[in-house]
Target: Multidrug ABC transporter substrate-binding protein
Amino acid sequence: MNNYIKAALLSFWNSKIRAILNLSGVIIGVTAVTTLVSLGEGLKVEVSGLIEGFGTNVVTIANGNIDLEGGASAGTMNPANFVATDIISLDDISDLEALDGIEQVAPVSLVPGKVTYADLQSSPIIMGVTGNFLQTFEVLVLKDGKMFDKNEKDAVAVVGPKTASALFGDKDPLGEKIFIQDTEFTIIGLSDEPKLSDLLGSEYSNIVLIPFSQATKLNGGELSISRTIVKATDTANVDETKDKMKALLIDNHGGEEDFTILTQDDLLGLFDDFVTLATTMVTAIAAISLLVGGIGIMNIMLVTVTERTREIGIRKAVGATKRDIMFQFLTEAVLITMIGGLLGLLLSFAIGAVVASQTPLTPSITPGIMILALGLSTLIGVIFGLWPAMRAASKDPIEALRYE
Model:
């Protein structure tokens, strides 16, 4: 084997340009595949951190019936429910609050529009919530001021740090007046940076919380509950509480399950499935470049076999077997792809470092990803180097010696 490797390295040295071209295709393919998979893994880590930050005893009620087991049929799932805002009612909220094992229930109503202050504008997420929202959704905490009461009716607001910075700069926003649509709101509180990563926490930094009643007015007087956050008591079994909530809501909705109750595990599963699917799709596309690199290696190896026909004849004349000739050329193909795989892997680490320093996302190159990269590159070498190697081994030694 050492002799095969030495012969392969000597061949590369004697044909540097050809070797570089061979390497380039493999490096590009391995870099693309490794980088995309590592980005997907990094996103999974971020999403897991986000969901775990919500708390193990917090569940979310979403509109629409999501089949958490997969395979929901179009006949049993109405897509319109996912964008509907009239599925959960105030009666549902009251009944949930009275249910054993539940500590807090906080409906969320989204309000369209921009926030203005003087001649400045901002486009935060405007959420109509009850005053117990921060107690339920503990990702957000107050930095200054106060939260409005649970059933607040006045036009008051709590703003996030990013929104405050955009509208007021370094000025204290407490007591200032802002406009949402045509309604004036007084800022009574300032929230701190969310207890989440920069990648997924930025949206909770650019936020304005207003009383649920005010959100209903801004939505034309229509009740609009987009999501409902429920916090179970510390002693409650979350799965059992979820079953009780589900039974209650189905009974309230006349036997129709037009909602989905998502625990932390449910959310993790949904995000994990989505990210895995997306990563698999883009990785498959990137793998095409690795396949093209393999075809390029095969073409160049076939040319190399033709150019070295006389060398093959001499080696066979002095005792080299078909097996020796085949392994010599196969070693060259595998070695070039392995070197390309290593260089592509190193380039992926460099790209990951740049992405981590310039964006909130930190790519995760795990040992499994490294094995995948090197395994794929080696497999490409074997697959696309086998035919040229067999062709070299099958040459007639007498005809090869006559080749000019």
The first strand starts at residue 58 and ends at 63.
